[in-house]
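Internal ticket #5521
Category: modeling
Description: The requester needs a full-assembly model to guide mutagenesis choices. All entity lines are attached below as received. Residue total reported by intake: 651.
Assigned to: D.W.
Attached entities:
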Amino acid sequence: MSTDTLATAASTGAAGADAVVELEDVVRVYPGHPPVRALRGLSLRIDRGELVGIVGPSGAGKSTLLHILGTLDQADSGTVHIDGHDVGAMNDRQLSALRAHRIGFVFQQFFLNPGVSALDNVADGLLYTGAPLARRRRRARTTLERVGLGNRMHHRTNELSGGQRQRVAVARAVAGRPSMLLADEPTGALDSASGAGVLDLLHELHSAGTTVVVITPDHDVADSLPRQVHILDGRIEHDERRTR
Amino acid sequence: MTGPKPNGRAGAPTPSRLRPRDVLRVAASGLRARPLRAVLSALGIAVGIAAMVAVVGISASSREEVTEQLEALGTNLLTVAPGQTLGGQQATLPEGSVDMVARVGPVTSVSAVGEVDASVYRSAEIEETHTNGLTVLATRTDLLDTVGGTVSSGRWLDDALAGYPTVVLGANAAERLGVSRTDGTVSVWLGDEWFTVVGTLDPVPLAPELDSAVLIGWPAAMEVLGFDGAPTTIYERSPESAVAAVRDVLPATVNPSSPEEVTVSRPSDALAAQAATDETLTTLLLALGGVALLVGGIGVANTMVIAVLERRSEIGLRRALGATRAHVRRQFLGESVLLAGLGGVGGAVLGGGLTAAFASTRGWPLALPAWVLAAAAGATIVVGALAGAYPAARAARMSPTTALSAP
Ligand SMILES: Nc1ncnc2c1ncn2[C@@H]1O[C@H](COP(=O)(O)OP(=O)(O)O)[C@@H](O)[C@H]1O
Ligand SMILES: [Mg+2]
């Protein structure tokens, strides 16, 4: 792969001392009849180490935004810099490299492999880094211990509760120590107690230095976060920081 | 333009990478998730490969059998028979022709039979018109050594027996007449007289005409049945190196005045040719096996297309974990090749087993050329790759977000 391109992409990034995310005037239109303007000129900067909540009603464009932050989707116009790289100038291999090493995802539906152990699910988070299996499992073990599932490692994920499953998914996302963890309604499928547990885990990861972006439709949840970005109709309605 | 940003981890991330061993692991785990489906779709391939391996194996074993047989029988036997006269009538061999053949330098042994105009029956009561396709041959006592025949039961004609009304039956003749006892208690009605059965023969591969013949001594044929003493087939052996030369001189030796009325043939050629005609059938069966393999391949392709549709969210997840399009393609291609390979191994084992079983029931040597197994392995890899190409490309082309939003 052309690492030159990546280096160039990194160096031409808009200035920003320690930005993990820099969006400028991002537009995303889903083609169709009529086309859906999911993001309508959205600008956002997230610094290293932040814990950000994306809040807004259903259909506001939150998931679309998260996909663009995670380089799973591309903006139709505007510029996107993730971890210093100009995403618009990168090819599939370079974007995949970014996802493999710098971005962790957590989804509402967990997306775990039910047939294998929690340990192997987490180890698969490192599959595309090219690390050998033994090292992937070693890292998975320490990460599972970190999320409080040290005693469930060898259970299949269909033997775990919803809250435990989402913890496994979080462990998979952070096993590779990404620059940024993206979570799309991670508590959406959980009861409030398990949801609170997963949220606590995100807070812990944040305290330990991980940049976390979490989508939540729940204002109470959002209120517990140090920064809330409110989205409505593909635009930022307001962006508030709580000072502790 | 500023230099690289002072981000903690700026700079190019290491490319994502899926180790070859992990391609195999991922492909295998995909199959393990639905074992029944994997087995069923591998079965189609297995049937095709088994058919092809068995067809080639069985025909190779049969050819090996012929080769071994020819080695044991020798390929140096020539037969001399009368052809047709210029006028289109059945020619005859001169009476002294056997001795003339014996005088040819390289000839090591020579013998002859002469067809006798008589019919043979199990009893005297059977009507004369009820023929049974058996020929009566006046036979020199040295015939058996020359043609490489063996006695199945009883004894062969010797100089003493040759003058009496005794018979030795060819293998088919014994069966058709229903004779199994050769202790002198069974007789057959031949011409106008009872002939005692003194022996039966095993089938004679180089002279199959003897199998359906009833053999009597030369003197007995002349005295009892009025045989004219003219040989109808002369059998001759010479060293392998001299066969061609002997073949060339035989017609003129046997019938100096009209050599064109003499037909010389080499029975081992007929045996080899028979093995060769089997190849047409082999090719046909092989083509059928190929069709089965093709159908199996379509089954694998179908399974893979369904797998890709069902596993969209898995594909989306893998892309989120850092899989490139190429990694996704490799995963599904690997799964397809593995699936076909599974069928290939199963089919090779099955085909080998069929070959062994068939060969052993026939008493043939087992011959399964290594190239067959190599070709089977190659065929399954090709079929798997072809079957998986489209579904894998489709999986790779899928956009990660569409894949993730799949129900
Ligand atoms: N793949 C798609 N094709 C067409 N429209 C889409 C697609 N994905 C999302 N949308 C539309 O874009 C808008 C924003 O969707 P989304 O980002 O999922 O919102 P949220 O996550 O805030 O609920 C919605 O109106 C949705 O219907
Ligand atoms: Mg959403």
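Resolution: model delivered.
Comment from assignee: The beta strands of chain A are 19-30, 36-47, 51-55, 77-82, 85-86, 103-106, 180-184, 211-216, 227-232, 235-241.
Ticket closed.
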